[in-house]
Amino acid sequence: LLEIDTASEGLNMELKQKQEKMRETDNVKAMLEFREKLPAFKLKSEFLKAVAANQVLVVSGETGCGKTTQLPQFILENEISSLRGASCSIICTQPRRISAISVAARISSERGEKLGETVGYQIRLESKRSAQTRLLFCTTGVLLRQLVQDPDLTGITHLLVDEIHERGMNEDFLLIILHDLLPRRPDLRLILMSATINADLFSKYFGNAPTIHIPGFTFPVKEFYLENVLEKTRYNIQSEFENFRGNSRRGRRQQESRKDPLTELFEDADIDALFKGYSTSTRRSLEAWSGSQLDLGLVESTVEYICRHEGSGAILVFLTGWDDISKLHDKLKVNNFLGDTNKFLVLPLHGSMPTINQREIFDRPPPNVRKIVLATNIAESSITIDDVVYVVDCGKAKETSYDALNKLACLLPSWISKASAHQRRGRAGRVQPGVCYRLYPKMIHDAMPQYQLPEMLRTPLQELCLHIKSLQLGAISMFLAKALQPPDPLSVENAIELLKTIGALDDREELTPLGRHLCTLPLDPNIGKMLLMGSIFQCLNPALTIAAALAHRDPFVLPLNRKEEADAAKRSFAGDSCSDHIALLKAFEGWKDAKRNRKDRTFCWENFLSPVTMQMMEDMRNQFLDLLSGIGFVDKSQGPKAYNQYSDDLEMVCAILCAGLYPNVVQCKRRGKRTAFYTKEVGKVDIHPASVNAGVHLFPLPYMVYSEKVKTSSIYIRDSTNISDYALLMFGGNLIPSKSGDGIEMLGGYLHFSASKTVLDLIRKLRGELDKLLSR
Ligand code: ADP
Ligand code: MG
């Protein structure tokens, strides 16, 4: 990752002199004063000794004690001062892009340098670094990709893996690799950094590696629960909830596919007995409270209450995602409840924001201005805002979950763990005693799990399995069995089977040419395949749009009281295509046109589309385009025309959809005047009522591909597209001659095609050509 000049005495000296010179400057001196007050500073020499003496070291410490900004810096300063600066190469991984950038920027300014000199960062598609860079912050994903070219991490002297307590998939994966790598690289130093959660677990995994704990200091934080908040704010929960629920299809999807046990527990509880002593309106409000959706009106009232009745100090609001953040941001801007918007600084903080407005987030606002930060769980442990005095915690975070038996996966807001709730609360006590407002009842808190399940145990594993193959780490299941907490073998099996089915792995579990390309795309393999096929077949724009919606979320909103109008709007986009995906595509194209004429807001309003999601989709399309150009599938200099010759050809679009969504395929079987639908895994399924295909009796083509299945009263397929057998023959899975010799089979014999030998020969030839294109 770092280009190391062959260590020269001269350069070592030069680096040392520069470092010493910078220490004399006022700015660096002032920052040093701040740094010396951080708890990490007191353990500097102990830490450096431990790094020198041990191959692996685990460091834990309260968030904000200086782990991320100080520990890598201590190593860097020490290497430079000891005249080893030229040959040292320190990498520090971060789970999120935004923290990689913000920390690198912070350390550069603490050293009085420009970002990209001695300290730099590298994230997907973006970097700031140079030949002088000795300390590089990168996302864990970037380091994992680097391992493909350099499995031994040659030249890297120190590796710091940050935020391991979060138990992210990438971090857990990296730890298995490092576990195997350390014996081969005895000179490599590994430092694992964690919040004060479960540090022993990591130490044990690395043969009882020594641990250093940085004791922190926080002021006491008072906590209030929903029942207290309702008494204070006199907010009435009832009405908001319905509106909000209507606006979130994903939310509905969650309610359909999974009952939330915590909320259910609350629903069954005896509210009267639990909340004796509270006012009737509070009790009624608690009854109406449903934990399954966040009531933004409640959040707003709480913020308002703090502003009106509490002393000065920044407010940090924890929300679940970009949607809530932008909605609340708009609400707060519009309802300037204290009369003067200049008195407030409302700042969104979200991991996918392209660049954070550094200064404003961390700096103290001018006197008499209150800073209100609206954040996701990124502010829980990766980014510390010192002047926070009030925390408002909605109690949820977006979390992926995977049901291996039904092969169902979703990304939804779920209750956080007690450990997370504690972290969030702690954010309020950094500079003075603080207050934490929890927008959930105390009994929900008491029922929260101690820790969150590691990501590896609750997500589909196909992307991870591809990665294991591309790093040549041996048999997938054997490798994963070595994890800190190994995933369910059934999940592993499902992932391998899926990769074989889409043609990314061959029968021997080795990567195919398609698989190799998919490895280079940091995306779900199905979505990656759709993008590759879209560019090969010059149908790129539709592939980008649909892939963006699949990777992010459906832009159509379903207001409860105007459902019919919303359905009609969606149907008119679909025309007679029998496809939700084409409806989506047309809606996006319409939005682009409207945006050119600055009518995009009206367009969204009239067509029941979420403006936030549309914008996010546009951003993601650009990211995908960059990725495709990065791996040479798109040459941007040729202009968009070169890749869009067939973009208006809806049959081609459906074929590309088939390539991306396979093996999510159902057979349409005619039953009298109606059609019935069958899948391989679960047999008969229904079209979801929100689909443009719901209520259609007969379909022109014999198959349907779909984005996902959900299970409620019956099993529904969502977002479906009617496709022809030729699309399947060309883009579906492997073709196997049927046993009876009269045609071709797919999906382990589930799909059977009796096409003539001539047609099949032709398809084989075409597929052969496609394989050649992919092996280029
Ligand atoms: P930890 O990793 O232990 O949670 P950090 O090293 O991230 O702690 O932060 C240490 C201190 O530096 C905190 O008080 C934090 O507020 C401050 N800090 C970190 N990044 C910045 C920044 N970009 N601007 C201003 N202060 C920062
Ligand atoms: Mg940190």
UniProtKB/TrEMBL annotation:
Family matches, as PANTHER family: ATP-DEPENDENT DNA_RNA HELICASE DHX36 (PTHR18934:SF237), ATP-DEPENDENT RNA HELICASE (PTHR18934)
Source species of the chain: Sesamum indicum
MF term (GO), any: RNA helicase activity
Keyword Hydrolase: yes
GO CC term, one of those recorded: nucleus
EC assignment: 3.6.4.13
Name of the encoding gene: LOC105161717
Keywords annotated in UniProt: ATP-binding, Helicase, Hydrolase, Nucleotide-binding, RNA-binding
Similarity comment: family membership: Belongs to the DExH box helicase family.
Helicase C-terminal domain sequence ranges: 298-472
Span of domain Helicase ATP-binding: 48-215
Protein name, UniProt field: RNA helicase
Statement: the UniProt record of this protein carries the keyword Nucleus: no
SUPFAM superfamilies xref list: P-loop containing nucleoside triphosphate hydrolases
Catalysed reactions, semicolon-separated: ATP + H2O = ADP + phosphate + H(+)
